[in-house]
Amino acid sequence: MFYHDGKLQYKVKVDKPNPQFAKMLQQAIGGIEGEIRVCLQYLFQAWGARGPVKYRDMLLETGTEEMAHIEMLATAVALNLETAPNETKDKMASDSPILEAIMGGANPRHILSSGLAAMAVDSNGVPFNGSWVVGTGNLATDMYANVMAESSGRVLATRLWEATDDKGMKDMLAFLIARDTMHQNQWLAVLEELGGLEGMHPIPNSFPQAEENQHFNYNFLSTHIDPKKMAEGRWSEGKSMDGKSTFTIEKAKPEGQEPELGPPHPKGYAQKEQMTGGGSITEKVKDWLE
Amino acid sequence: MFYHDGKLQYKVKVDKPNPQFAKMLQQAIGGIEGEIRVCLQYLFQAWGARGPVKYRDMLLETGTEEMAHIEMLATAVALNLETAPNETKDKMASDSPILEAIMGGANPRHILSSGLAAMAVDSNGVPFNGSWVVGTGNLATDMYANVMAESSGRVLATRLWEATDDKGMKDMLAFLIARDTMHQNQWLAVLEELGGLEGMHPIPNSFPQAEENQHFNYNFLSTHIDPKKMAEGRWSEGKSMDGKSTFTIEKAKPEGQEPELGPPHPKGYAQKEQMTGGGSITEKVKDWLE
Amino acid sequence: MFYHDGKLQYKVKVDKPNPQFAKMLQQAIGGIEGEIRVCLQYLFQAWGARGPVKYRDMLLETGTEEMAHIEMLATAVALNLETAPNETKDKMASDSPILEAIMGGANPRHILSSGLAAMAVDSNGVPFNGSWVVGTGNLATDMYANVMAESSGRVLATRLWEATDDKGMKDMLAFLIARDTMHQNQWLAVLEELGGLEGMHPIPNSFPQAEENQHFNYNFLSTHIDPKKMAEGRWSEGKSMDGKSTFTIEKAKPEGQEPELGPPHPKGYAQKEQMTGGGSITEKVKDWLE
Amino acid sequence: MFYHDGKLQYKVKVDKPNPQFAKMLQQAIGGIEGEIRVCLQYLFQAWGARGPVKYRDMLLETGTEEMAHIEMLATAVALNLETAPNETKDKMASDSPILEAIMGGANPRHILSSGLAAMAVDSNGVPFNGSWVVGTGNLATDMYANVMAESSGRVLATRLWEATDDKGMKDMLAFLIARDTMHQNQWLAVLEELGGLEGMHPIPNSFPQAEENQHFNYNFLSTHIDPKKMAEGRWSEGKSMDGKSTFTIEKAKPEGQEPELGPPHPKGYAQKEQMTGGGSITEKVKDWLE
Amino acid sequence: MFYHDGKLQYKVKVDKPNPQFAKMLQQAIGGIEGEIRVCLQYLFQAWGARGPVKYRDMLLETGTEEMAHIEMLATAVALNLETAPNETKDKMASDSPILEAIMGGANPRHILSSGLAAMAVDSNGVPFNGSWVVGTGNLATDMYANVMAESSGRVLATRLWEATDDKGMKDMLAFLIARDTMHQNQWLAVLEELGGLEGMHPIPNSFPQAEENQHFNYNFLSTHIDPKKMAEGRWSEGKSMDGKSTFTIEKAKPEGQEPELGPPHPKGYAQKEQMTGGGSITEKVKDWLE
Amino acid sequence: MFYHDGKLQYKVKVDKPNPQFAKMLQQAIGGIEGEIRVCLQYLFQAWGARGPVKYRDMLLETGTEEMAHIEMLATAVALNLETAPNETKDKMASDSPILEAIMGGANPRHILSSGLAAMAVDSNGVPFNGSWVVGTGNLATDMYANVMAESSGRVLATRLWEATDDKGMKDMLAFLIARDTMHQNQWLAVLEELGGLEGMHPIPNSFPQAEENQHFNYNFLSTHIDPKKMAEGRWSEGKSMDGKSTFTIEKAKPEGQEPELGPPHPKGYAQKEQMTGGGSITEKVKDWLE
């Protein structure tokens, strides 16, 4: 169950409102790298957690924190969409329609749809999509999903930090960047507890590895058409990262057949020509049609 | 530029066609854990690769391989949707409509829309979505995205392997599971080359870390309402995973203000009551309206 | 800022796990009538609230409560996907693949993607969509959006209640149905405070009503082709609901012209025939092309 | 069945074409507050109407009218994308590529994809989404959905009216604003016929209210962490809006348990550590694994 | 402007309600091959039509007809979701929850969300998507889009016809199949008027063909890796279909360079290793960093 | 199976980087007219091809070529997002934030999300959608889908060609335009092989045409409300395009009934008023409720 106190986790101050920056901040709210995604991702992972409860507990802690980050960013968007009263009054007096001033690069829905407030969309106005909320039930996979989310989130936050010279915004982003640092480390700590590379991989480590194809599991396949070019590197020689085998490298080549599908089902209403064909009609089809 | 040879990378054989399993296999084609996603993800990462070209080269190799995996799975779906000719003929002779037999748990669009072939959708018929193709331009983030994709992909493949007892399908999946093992290792190899945990984190490592908030960057924040309950673990004490600091833990508490937005813009057409309010109207609004 | 305590707002007990019902419950989580939507809707409305702060405060209270409802339902889904250990062990021993038993009408991604846990999707597996989070900045509109969300939510919950005979599930739903009753009343209370029908409508009430077309604003237009048939009712006579005029009724007829667009732009690469036309080429085009 | 006459319901004239305004108008066509949504919503409600046929008849009348509104707006978009022939000719003669002039804030697909015509998308180019078409089969819910649609639609139209000083566009919008006034009143008239607040609520009124939890149905729950702060108002005391009870207020507190899920299914391929765990492994899991 | 008469264009009768078939019929309503798509497609093409008005007029005629087809199908869905009263009463008396009987292969939202009525979704419950409404402003392209829509629509309708043995449904589908026949012919008639293959192609025929690359415009490129295998056919020899050249065939080979992107922008926060690289760092990057 | 060589199919050179043009080029990558769509469309058609294998072979050839087109365009986007090093260095020295310079009309995610690289989205940032990948299993339908895709693709490419005066970009586009010319011709060649208009239509030609309604299959229906206005043309008289009948024309009129649905299901929780109604309650409902 959840509670709130109505204050922000960290101060949000906008010195010079900027609707273009409001549009950009939306990426950190409703984008795939954004806070709605990590908030729901950690909470759904917690709610579906099976196994040691300590991870469920931690996921709840941080999922709840992320809710406060959405709140901070939503406030920042709203403040960036405000214009100082005086300035606005002056504009009212002028001939030019109010929206013109902020339309270059701004999100029109910030005016038309939300009344100068944040929305559950990304920086192009594309709505948040629930498919981004990853929880597989495999803890190691989920932790990688979380490291990745916090990495792309921190990359995004540093780019936003770079994109503004508003002191208040830079301060807020410096806080969020710091939290991403912690969260990256936090999920990595779980990965260590889960056994590190050798203990965890290949993920899932509960599948009997003897069942996988033993020729292709540590074998870099080059698809380069030139027989002499193969992208070699750490991944093509030496001990595999999971310590379970040795990397090899070879040219990819087809082990499989040319696929042959049966004729179309007569009641599926393909074209007649697909059944009686031209020169290339297969014997199989002929037999069947008689 | 790309080439093909019309053969499958690995043999695809279906002993007993099963439309329900065809529906499930779609998750591995058009789902977020599926092959269209990794194929496009590796290729887009390659096409946008900046920095050492060896990673671009490797991404191209494996992105091209994934295209062959889509092909294998699409073939597997088509074969699972086929019924042996004789059996079908018998059905034709019976009164019952042809579709009835396969509707329990099958994807209706496999009959209605695709003519018994694979589609670019997941196991619920939800279309593939380009937002899943992650490439951030930050190599370490992208490698984590790739490890995560191959981890959720291998989890999916093992679950599909479990869901069938068709010998041909199990063999094909054992091949794909093996490739996921290799690909997990492969992206981990790049992460090692990029400096391992200490060298890479916090991602991005090119952002001047002094700019981030120094109180909150290695500090686990507990949002549990009970002052005595905090989810402790490896993440709350000891050296941080990136080796740059020491974990601490404390109770989250608001550092920020109660947010205060200005009144609605007069030309944004909120309700009048939002401007003149009830008892709680702020001084700020009063001043402005006069 | 937000806090949690790790307990459920109301008890969630499943007597007889049922994966089909798990699929149905997803509608109440990630569907348009579901709890993710109302949770984010109330919170985004709070975060963007301009005007009397009492409404912002109330929205925060209830938005936070809805988070606990998602948690309850996510737990209910996970419990409905569990099978008693013994039963499972027996199944393992049998020949039949584990998934077969639950595929009739179940969501395949509950097995393939989430590891028997809830997801941010609806009962057909369609992901939650951020466009459903409505907040217009006009308080009366938003309250109607909320009444409507709680009405469709309560309708959904009663249908789910009807669809199960699991005692635990019925009890949980009876709690959620009660909360929907309260929340409907709660938003209606705000609508009353905002002036009731006469005070609020037409929404937005801050737009100068003299600017709207004065012939068509209280005039029911019948588009029935039969001159004698018009759908009469309370809406076609008597005082208008907002008390500002009297309802009238008349046949709709075109007040506007037949639309005439200019010729295609020569560099927009329409077909040549669209510029030089057949018999019906307009003079306007001819002139322009010379 | 439907008919047309090729004329516009109301005149559409654009004095000064403006591609930015064309982009904005798209919100009123393909946005969630737009005319495609209300058109399909009223028609689908009509086509699925069960109960007194008078409502079905009225929904058909107005659904058909909305089709004419899409037509008006689509025409307005096309006209806003036109440039006077002479002006265009001059541009052709200049060096600058034709598109440059209109790219600031315009929708690139108006040039690239539609050939200077309207599309079924919103003001950010996000496609219309069928999930917005609400029809629950519960008439009162549907009427609230309609009041809400017309309220957000009128808010949008007044903001568009504010965003232009084109006389023709303002006149067209003044017509549409008037229709929204009527339609708000019209759906409210049905709500009155359905019994008003006391008769209708809680929606659905056909569910036996005794079955809902009797403690929580008229009880405002405060989730504020501070025991002394509760968002009081009309919703926390006095007769409930539906006249069926009296509002109370109390602090939310967990009535439910800490959720406990079973261990991961052994064939679902979670990580091994989720089954054998660390210090916190539950007895339940231990027993089961033996 | 549009009108209606409340009757169906053709009779819709369901002899034996079948919720699975209701689910399938949704493909013809809200699927990509469905009637909402063609209705909006023809109308949007009409509303944006530039050039000879006769095509605009015809598009309006048929777009309006398609609205009646949605109506027919929506009615058919609603009727397929009805159960004869007696049968229902009996079910009420039994222990089994009402929904169980119809859940195998049915759309749960037909019960949970719409109250036994049609929705704007496809046969998997995926919402209609406005991106499917194609109108390019190039009349020949649009006519091909229309032929294609009516072809996939007729294929769908014949498969639905095959999937039912309900006499009423077969009769309704025989009507819709006939209309698809007409509509295919109708759009083909426009293509003939636009000049047939030689007159129309390559589309757009208004682009100065001399500007396109003259080596590759009638040249089949084989990407088969085997130098001796090329997919020959009518497309590789003889006069081109547009009569403007002669088909040739050759092996595809790269005419372009190996792509070389600049180093990452220093403020875009890639990893440091992407700038200073390993062994493969380019001279370009080195120079730039100094 | 697939191979690559790391070179581009045709040279891609950008003389003057232009982020606005990069945004526009995205339409040709991830838009509905773009290359991801045709690539996957041809490949999925190949992978599901039933009937003469020559078409499967050809589809594979061209699907593979399209992959190279995505690569070219992705490279073009990345190059358009680059600024010459010197120019960038100067900008660094200035006060203005780096992003400001390119925000007018650019895609913010090119900076925030992808690090100056192409993404799987269209020119508005809307993600690629798998529903656009059309393959019906009916070869003629699929060929029309392909002609249409190449027609809208060529229209798009000519508009992009028009929108730039960068010599390198114009050259690349002139190549792509040429390939679209060939591909249009190529699919038309298959249509000829499939029998041309008379042989192919109505599609599917395998459905027994006697089963379709014989009154309405070659009959243009006018829905114009004016009895004297009917959109006549080639489609209303003369031999039908498929040579199987003669076109006629008549006024559309309802052949069907006024639809009558049963009352709402008592356990579906509509409003009570929908069951007991007002004046218009049907006898059917009354009987049933007793």
Automatic annotation (TrEMBL), chains A, B, C, D, E, F:
- Free-text cofactor note: Binds 1 Ca(2+) ion per subunit.
Reported cofactor(s): Ca(2+); Mn(2+)
Q: Does the keyword Metal-binding apply?
A: yes
Q: Where is Mn(2+) 1 bound in this sequence?
A: E35, H69, E150, H183
Which organism encodes this protein? Anditalea andensis
Query: What Pfam families does its record include?
Result: Mn_catalase (PF05067)
Stored InterPro entries: Ferritin-like, Ferritin-like_SF, Mn_catalase, Mn_catalase_dom
| Positions of Ca(2+) binding | D57
Q: Tell me which Gene3D superfamilies the record gives.
A: 1.20.1260.10
- UniProt protein name: Catalase
Gene Ontology MF annotations: metal ion binding
Keywords in UniProt for this one?
Calcium, Manganese, Metal-binding
Instruction: State the family named in the UniProt similarity comment for this chain.
Output: Belongs to the manganese catalase family.
**Region annotation Disordered: where it falls in the sequence:** 235-290
- Which annotated residues bind Mn(2+) 2? E66
